[in-house]
Amino acid sequence: MSVLLPLACLAILVISLFLQRDKAGSSPPAARWFFVLVTAGVTLFAARRFGEATEFPQLLIGFGLGAGAGILALLLDRLKPHESATIALAAGCASVVLLLNAKDVVNACLAIPVGAAMVAMLLPTRTGGLAAVVLSCVALSEVMGTFRQNSFVFPSAGPVIATAIAMLSLAGLAMEKMAPKFEKFWPPVAAVVCVGIAYATAIKYLQLESGWLALAIAPIAALLVFWLFAGEQGSDVFQLIVATIIWIALGTVAFGMAKGFGITLALVVSTTLLVALKSDRALITAGPLLALALHRVFREMHPEVARSLDIGQHYTLIGLAIGALIPLLPEEWLERLKGVGDVRAAASSALWVLIALATPALIGLFLAPKGLLGFVTGLAFSGFFGAMRLNTKPLVLGFSCGIGTLAILEYRWLGDVTSMTRDDKIHWFLYSAIGLCVIAAVLGLLGRSSRPAALASEAA
User: Fold this and answer.
1) How far is CA 81 from CA 124, 269, 455, in A?
2) Of the candidates 274, 376, 292, 283, the residue with the CA atom closest to the CA atom of residue 327
3) Which of 108, 210, 344, 357 is the most buried if burial means most Cβ atoms within 10 Å?
């Protein structure tokens, strides 16, 4: 079974490209590839230097899978693939990690979103962003499945669901080729079939007698959010609030399935279905459900932090606010760099990745573990705020998950931060402030020439 999943995804990918593809587009500038190598090197060096030696091979495999999926998504994007190919790529790469020993799966899965988000950020494409979202959600389900049952069945539930939805999306593509009018009936039909997939997964595959209803509700919730944004071009705050309520309600119901495992499975079902329905704006609003999933994974990895939420709750709130805003900053800044060259844009992307790498460690140092837990939870709410902007890309959600899993890993590398004295924190604060000021100055210089170009384009 562990070998069949990647092979099945490969078959779906090939058939999907056979049915729908376009002429190859242009490849990204060489400067962006250079900065991919630089940031990957920095990330792996940090993992090797500060992490445990025994876990580095697992992190390397996971990071390589995530980054490799991002690069393959870039190549796919040049062919303008159907969404079934994107889902199959993500599900296939996520299922490869199941070939490892059960004890190695968790660390590898936590590193997968980091690699996928980094490549999607430095080599931005729609296919890369969508693949990063699906891959990250499936990886989180694998982590939670390993904690619930240290065997193949539970960790593989997420990849199995994603593969089934990829097959469904491929069938929808074939139907649209044969009967173009089928497209208008596709959303409800896909949701109904996904209900069947969710039921079969819970009852037949996982053999859970209770809690299956929570997973079966996930496609219905995704369909409701899809209809909220169907045909909408503007940003309706009311719709965003309703979508947020739907996602939080789904997470609350799904929590009862296998002690939180249901949240990650509901996340896989919902996000993958929305990718199949080609609704990027609806997908971005799934941030609250992703936040609950990240929160559960953090609690499983570091239960002592979750139990210590007492007088430090204000740290949690501060971390929550920072986490909701950080993923939005890179895209907002890069929007202003359209008037500069590729080298400057690539260098700016690399600097934002470095900021993302350092942020969880700084939050852990200055806001204590409680602030870091709030930061991880707040990350995915960036999708809610990002959805208020018309041109926000799914990359925001994938980037959020990448930073979230990186925070889970970095907390282990930091050691006991609660024992730091005030003088130690001031010492690190000065160094951090100087470093951030230098990066801010470099970003300002890189984007300096974009303002006249932007003004010229507005005047024209």
Assistant:
1) 16, 21, 36
2) 376
3) 108
